[in-house]
Every structure is written in C-alpha cells, then in structure tokens.
C-alpha cells in the first residue's frame, strides 16, 4: 500500500530526460531524492501516473435516501 506522496510536476519533468540520457531507475531516484519504486511506476505509464481514483468505503446512503434528502417535501412524499 502506498504511503508516500505522489511526484510533483517538477519531479515528473526531471525523470523523463534522465531516463532518455540513459540513467537507470536507481540513479534517477537518487538524483531526485525519491524511491526507485515511484520512479519505476512513473516510467511504466507517465501519462496515466497518479490518475487512478482510490476506492474507499462505499456510501451508506442509498439512492432513495438521496432523493428524500434533496427533496423539499422530505419524507412526506414517500410515505403515501
């Protein structure tokens, strides 16, 4: 499970030129001061890096509950 922060824009901009220059992942990680794993994950798919949404706990409020909450009449309309 990830515990560190994502790469910032400056770090992302530095990784690709280092890779093109022939530095390996460990050397790039030392240059920018980040872990080898974060560099490796970025190099796998630079365009998609950091775009995956975290799962999280599902909402407890169902669709019906949302409609009741958002309706001005409240629960009266649904108790007929």
What structural class results from the helix and strand content?
Answer: mainly alpha
Order of helices and strands: HHHH
Euclidean distance between termini CA atoms: 49 Å
Helix percent reads: 40-55%
Content of β-strand = under 5%
User: What are the low-pLDDT stretches, counting only 5+ consecutive residues below 50?
Assistant: none
Q: What global shape is seen?
A: rod-shaped
| Rg on CA atoms, Å | 23 Å
Mean residue pLDDT: 84
Regarding quaternary structure, what we see is single chain
Main pleated-sheet profile: none
Number of strands: 0
| Number of separate helices | 4
Biased composition (Basic and acidic residues): 60-80
Main location: nucleus
GO cellular component, one term: nucleus
Domain Tc3 transposase DNA binding: 4-51
What keywords describe this structure?
rod-shaped; 80 residues; mainly alpha; single chain; 0% strand
If you had to describe this structure to a student in words, what would you say it looks like?
The protein has helices spanning 9-20, 25-32, 36-44, 63-70. With 80 residues, the protein is mostly helical. It is built from four helices and no strands. Helix 2 (25-32) packs across helix 3. One of its GO terms (molecular function) is DNA binding.
